[in-house]
Amino acid sequence: MEGHAYAPVMEHFSHPHRLELCSMEQSLAPTTCSCCRQMPSGWTYACRACNYYLHASCAQMSELIRHRAHPDHPLDLLPVSAYPDGCFDCDACGGNGTGFSYHCGDCGLDFHPLCASAPASVTHQGHPHALTLAFSLPPRYTMGFTCDVCGGKGSKCWLYRCADCEFDVHMSCATGKGREQTQVMENQLAQILLGRGRGTGGVDGNGVEDGSWNRFLGVGSAVDISARWGRS
């Protein structure tokens, strides 16, 4: 595999044991990533004794963020759902989740980490203009929307749209989803850390002076990383 900037061993707040960096083939993974619930592949942190795995990119998720979809309160990264059944409904994509979540305890809002990290705008081969991430539908869309890529229905979920052309797209149709999206994020993060000469696998909670980490998570567009990286 290509070079990386991840630490060989790390401690993560979600697990009591130290995690070791390894390179995994998806077909050989014994279980899913505890954060995103996709199959581990590529650079992954593992506690093999506990069968606990985190994609290297997922292990870099900040424990506290502010998001423009919910500006009134910060969102905490929870390794376990806040609800008794161990599941949550993502208020971004509408899907169910059993892995990590960004959670607002005051308002009962929950987001998949990958949804919370979605870029503020994307391009799609099916449309000539950039598509902007929208957190709600225009008021006139009383019956939801029809995705102009897959033809499926959408309702109260986030979407990407070109307002000028009224071109509306599911988040997953606009960006790709699952492990493909995770792999893109992991590659981007590795390049950011390599460019900064960092080998710790951690990210400064005050942000990156050149804005690379902010751009990676959409800071200045949808996400603002807290001034702290770890909990205190």
UniProtKB/TrEMBL annotation:
<keyword id="KW-0479">Metal-binding</keyword>
<keyword id="KW-0862">Zinc</keyword>
<keyword id="KW-0677">Repeat</keyword>
<dbReference type="InterPro" id="IPR046349">
    <property type="entry name" value="C1-like_sf"/>
</dbReference>
<dbReference type="Pfam" id="PF03107">
    <property type="entry name" value="C1_2"/>
</dbReference>
<dbReference type="InterPro" id="IPR002219">
    <property type="entry name" value="PKC_DAG/PE"/>
</dbReference>
<feature type="domain" description="Phorbol-ester/DAG-type">
    <location>
        <begin position="16"/>
        <end position="66"/>
    </location>
</feature>
<protein>
    <recommendedName>
        <fullName>Phorbol-ester/DAG-type domain-containing protein</fullName>
    </recommendedName>
</protein>
<dbReference type="InterPro" id="IPR004146">
    <property type="entry name" value="DC1"/>
</dbReference>
<dbReference type="GO" id="GO:0046872">
    <property type="term" value="F:metal ion binding"/>
</dbReference>
